[in-house]
Amino acid sequence: MEKRLVGLYKRLLVYLPQNFKDQFSEEMETVFLRRIQEVGSRGRRTMIRLFLGELLAQPRLWSLAYQRERRILKMNGSQPSAITNEQASWKAAIAAVLPLVCFPLLFLMTGTLRSLLFAAHLNFLYYALWTDVTTFGIYIPFYLLLLFGFLFAWLRDFPRWSYTYLGWLMIILISGLGISELNDPYLKYLKLIWGPFLAALLIAVLLNPTIKPLKALWRSWRWDWTLASFMLFSILEFMVLASFDEMPGPSVSGIFWQGLAVATLVGGALWYMRASGRNRRILILLSSATLSIAISVGVTAYYWHNFPKPNIKYPINGYAMIDQGLIFMLVVFAFLLAPALLSATLNRLFPNQLTG
Amino acid sequence: MPEIIQDYLPLTETTFYILLSMAVERKHGYAIIKDVEALSKGRVVPSTGTLYGALSRLLDQGLIERVAEENPEEVGRPRKFYSLTQYGSKVLEAEMTRLRSLVITAEQRTALNME
Question: Is CATH 3.40.605.10 the right assignment for the domain spanning B10-114?
Answer without folding.
Answer: no
